Structure formats: C-alpha cells, structure tokens
Amino acid sequence: MNEKTNNNHETFKVAGDWAVQSKALKSKFTHLTDLDLHLEPGKDTEMLRRLQHRLNKSREEAIEIIRSAEKQTSQGPPPPSKL
Predict the structure, then answer these.
(1) CA distances (Å), 22 to each of 9, 49, 75, in order?
(2) How far out from the chain centre does Cα 76 lie?
(3) Where does the pLDDT of residue 5 fall: very low under 50, low under 70, confident under 90, or very high at 90 and above?
(4) Average per-residue pLDDT in the chain?
(5) Which residue has the higher pLDDT, 62 or 77?
(6) CA distances from residue 45 to 34, 53, 70, 82, 83 in whole angstroms, order as listed
(7) Three-class HEC string of 15-77
(8) How far apart (Å, rounded) are the C-alpha atoms in residues 8 and 34?
(9) What does the pLDDT read at residue 4?
(10) Is 17 left (phi over 0), alpha (psi -120 to 50) or beta?
C-alpha cells in the first residue's frame, strides 16, 4: 500500500520512534499535551487530526511538521560545539 498524504480520506502513518518525535514536538510547540500526541496502534490519522486542530494547520502542514520531527530525531543530537 502506498502512503498518501494529499487527501483527507487517505491513510497517514507515523514512521520512526514516536516517543522521541512527540517529545521533540512538545518542546517545539509547548502548548501540546500528552493527550494531543497520544498515538494508539493503527490510529495515526486520529492523532494527526488532533495535531492539526491544536496547531491550527492544514493536513499537509501537520504532516510536514511530523516529517520534520522524524528527520530531526533520526539524525540524533547535533555534535558538541568546539569552543
């Protein structure tokens, strides 16, 4: 099954470690709660809708925010700066 993101009726699936990603999102968007970011197995689209509502973003914008968190957390922490 192909992952599609351009229609409200199509499936959305979180990739990667959601626990880490949700922490990153909570630090970036401090008004998000654990309940907003709660992800039950197979209910990715429901979490996406909550995130859209809380951030006042379109579906596409909310997906881009999540994908950005995926990329950020998959790269690991930045190397320490040299002083």
Answers:
(1) 24, 15, 15
(2) 16
(3) very low
(4) 85
(5) 62
(6) 16, 12, 16, 42, 44
(7) CCCHHHHHHHHHHHCCCCCCCCCCCCCCCHHHHHHHHHHHHCCCHHHHHHHHHHHHHHHHCCC
(8) 24
(9) 44
(10) beta
- Number of Cβ within 10 Å of residue 54's Cβ equals 16
| Burial (Cβ within 10 Å: 0-12, 13-18, ≥19) of residue 63 | middle
Amino acid, single-letter form, for residue 71: K
- 44: tokens are 């990715």
Amino acid at 18: W
10 Å CB burial of residue 39 (0-12, 13-18, 19+) is middle
Tokens of 31: 């008004």
